[in-house]
Amino acid sequence: PAGEARPTVSNVNFPAGAAAVPNLVMVGLPASGQVTIFNYSGTTQVVVDVEGYEAPAGSLAGGLYVPVTPTRICDTRAGNPSGLTGTALTQCEGKVPAPGSPLQVQVGSLASVPSTGVEAAVLEITAIDPSAGGYLTAYAAGGTPPVASSVNYVPGQVVAGSAIVPLDTAGAVDIVASAGSPGIAVDVEGYFSTSQPAGSSVTSPTGASVIAPAASPTRICDTRAGNPSGLSGTALSQCEGKAPGAGDTLTIQVTGLGSVPAGATAVVVNITAADTSASGYLSAYAAGGTVPETSDLNWEAGQSVANLVMVPLSSSGQMSIYNYTGSTQVVVDVMGWAVPPA
């Protein structure tokens, strides 16, 4: 937020000369309605796209966030490598779209998302092995593609990005590639119920929560040795020196840290993978649950990548992060959280 002290967290990480690197970010707004963006080193061009906003408490009925178990609902790769079934399988398998030709993906009625009463979905969209550099844009099915990007990629890359995407009346989204015809995978992480004017008679969905952006983003985990983030207490002891190896899971306490209150149902975190030893991915989910067949960050060996993720929390306020292969340092910054409506 403009006028606030700069937090010791990162939102977007990039190497010199990188192609465009996006990330979804949740930022609190001061009375001026402004945000400040700080660049650590070098120079970079900056593009900002608005995907939504959180209205003041009491101004809307509905418009609540409902976290779901992360679930894959689309994979265009042949051979069904994600092990999908039903609509999730048939709507995408083998249907890699040509540049400019949208891929329609049904979201409503899949992955615990209702068929009605849903305004937008929180999606993790992955571009897989494109033949040329470009970007993916996601938007309500049948609409005009916005002048915005959800995922940016270079040839041969596997890269994921989070997006809050409006749904059409049938509960579908369109995803269009600018170039390179990448394979596309789509994971659902939650949804927003349809908002109504205050005073409307609206029944909140089961598990519905109000999203609260953090007044000051806070780092709660850094696995790098030597405590480069200057953490203390639980934030230091739960992660330092505990970089997950292949097949390892890192479980961290979230509530009670970074102003996240007890009773929070989900957390909005920016997760960074650094010093990666091999190409791989991380999956974040509620502690104690089964590792989902989804990915939240994808990288090539040696890269540092970040992505905003909305993660359900266990009843004890914990989340787990699974590392698929190789080893990686993990950094977690709290950007906001979800609590039941008053």
Account of the protein in words:
- The structure is a single chain.
- By secondary structure, this protein is mainly beta.
- The protein contains two helices and 18 strands.
- It has helices at residues 86-90, 233-237, and strands at 60-61, 65-75, 103-106, 118-128, 134-140, 151-153, 158-166, 172-177, 183-193, 196-197, 210-222, 249-253, 266-274, 280-286, 297-299, 305-312, 318-323, 329-339.
- The chain has a four-stranded antiparallel sheet with strand order 2-9-4-7. A four-stranded antiparallel sheet has the order 3-8-5-6, with no helix packed on it.
How many beta strands in the DSSP annotation?
Answer: 18
Task: Output the structural class.
Answer: mainly beta
Q: Please report which band the strand proportion falls in: under 5%, 5-15%, 15-25%, 25-35%, 35-45% or over 45%.
A: 35-45%
In spatial order, strands of the major sheet run: 2-9-4-7
Q: Name the helix and strand elements from N-terminus to C-terminus, one letter apiece.
A: EEHEEEEEEEEEHEEEEEEE
- The value of Rg in angstroms is 19 Å
Largest beta-sheet characterization: 4 strands, antiparallel
Shape summary: globular
The oligomerization state is single chain
Task: Give the termini distance in whole angstroms.
Answer: 25 Å
Range of helix content:
under 10%
Mean pLDDT: 92
Low-confidence stretches: none
